[in-house]
Amino acid sequence: MSARVDIPADTSAAAKGTAPLIAASTHVKGGYKKGLAIFDFVLRLGAVVTALAAAATMGTTDQTLPFFTQFFQFQASYDDLPTFQFFVIAMAIVSGYLVLSLPFSIVAIVRPHASGPRLLLIILDTVALTLNTAAAAAAVAIVNLAQNGNSSANWLGICQQFDDFCQKASGAVVASFIAAGVLLFLIVISALALRKR
Questions:
Q1: Are 78 and 173 in contact (CB under 8 A)?
Q2: pLDDT in tens, 146-171
Q3: In 3D, which of 101, 104, 99 has the Cα closest to residue 116?
Q4: Do 121 and 190 contact (CB within 8 A), yes or no?
């Protein structure tokens, strides 16, 4: 009561009727775009944190120096300078945009070959980078003036007295330049992902 099964000795793909693996090569070909999309999402999260930290740090920058009595005080606050007000508003807009761009970055992860979301992100990232750079450059000019003054105009630096104010403002400017660098890197990543290959 034993059964015997004969297996032919020819094991080639043509004899078996199987097709070669073509689908595996197309998956590997576009794999770098998905990796770029994931890296884009992580960098966007980092840019949100740095832009929001820059806006929050500058928005809470103030210092009061008490002299003789409590009625006679010197105060320095971010809202005393229109440039710092512009900085806070611009960095809040940039961080808001970055939060709203996260769903488009997720779409780019799910559909790495779709060029529409990438093109939208590269255009809006360029606008956000421009706004971020303008705010950071204006604020760094005021921070430099506050630290060094201007001898030609007989303006004295105030950072010897308002050291906490200047340190927080300088930290906010540094965070905004980090956010600008991340935005620039995001634009390069989007350009690489849009490349045909």
A1: no
A2: 888 877 777 877 778 777 888 888 99
A3: 104
A4: yes
Q: Are 92 and 144 in contact (CB under 8 A)?
A: no
Q: Which residues, 6+ apart, have CB-to-CB distance to 154 below 8 Å?
A: none
| 155, β-bridge pairs | 150
Nearest to 56 by CA among 141, 166, 180, 175: 175
Q: What is the pLDDT of residues 8-33, one digit of tens each?
A: 665 555 555 555 555 444 444 557 88
**Could you give the CA distance from residue 44 to residue 42 in angstroms, rounded to a whole number?**
5
Structure tokens at 43: 């960098």
Over residues 86-107, the pLDDT tens digits come to 999 999 999 999 999 999 999 9
On the 0-12 / 13-18 / 19+ scale of CB atoms within 10 A, 10 is exposed
Structure tokens of 154? 């007989």
Tell me how far apart the 2 most distant CA atoms of the chain are, in Å.
Answer: 113
Q: What is the 3-state secondary structure (H, E, C) of 50-118?
A: HHHHHHHHHHCCEEEEECCCCCCEEEEEHHHCHHHHHHHHHHHHHHHHHHHHHHHHHHHHHCCCCCHHH
Query: What letter represents residue 189's amino acid?
Result: I
Reduced to 3 states, what is the DSSP secondary structure of residue 152?
coil
